[in-house]
Amino acid sequence: MAKTALITGILGQDGPYLAKLLLEKGYKVYGLIRRYSNPNFSNLDFLGITKKIELIDGDMSDESSLLHLIKRIMPDEVYNLAAQSFVGSSWQQAKLTTEINALGVLYMLNAIKLFSPTTKFYQASTSEMFGTSHDDGFQDENTIFHPRSPYGISKVYAYWMTVNFRESYDIFTCNGILFNHESPIRGIQFVTRKITDAVARIKMGLQDKLSLGNLDAKRDWGFAGDYVEAMHLMLQNEKPDDYVIGTGENHSVKEFVQLSFKYAGISDWEKYVVIDARFKRPAEVPNLKARATKAQKQLGWKAKTSFDELVKMMVEADLKRYQNK
Which residues are catalytically annotated? Predict the structure, then answer.
């Protein structure tokens, strides 16, 4: 029989890429949709898989809904990608961020423990948990956590709860500590997609300026399509463990801006960019760079898409969107 997988956060960025990968591997894929929401299927449509997924109602902030869900479908694998994932909003929505990102993970793990203890569980952890901590400029599985946002703090809770259920109840649980990963279906509120969308609009004469906060912040940026392969590999491994996933190099927001304008055929990018203090965070994380040696050795995973290729892919996709309109 085909394996079954439940993906929370199916309508976000990573969910569609992961679903596409699992469908290609013969899985039956369930996607969690929050009750009473007005779902947007554009990301699933972009990858052409909307009708291939069985969408089911549930809510990460409602423990009873998760208990009933896991009891009913008893999936082989659960990939928890659901989150209030916009770091900038987490200061204004700290309670909501905590309820979904932290308590939601506890609810899901409890449901697995009670009704489907053989289910393998993947938790989408994040490099934002490291904050300002690093070892020789890199972060890996041994780097101390020092989160600098309510988002990062909520993810640290979820990380340790995932570890605790593995150690306490012998459940197969893994944390994927993913560094920044982007794609043409990244949410428009995230800085990378904000940049490529604005550049496309400027190129098409629909926008005059691009307003940004800190151009000096550096991130380890990879392609989401590569990173979902690492998620799957973690749950196929013989033993559960936690892994840092990233490219091993980082680039500044300024570099992302420069390349985006370059691939849109605009050379004088400076005249279009405005620095706006409203987009600066109360506490910035200046520098993130992954040391993903463990994932390379134990999972055989390595990022395939370069930084240049990622930016080019995103700019071309946004240009195409506006050309089609």
Answer: 126, 128, 151
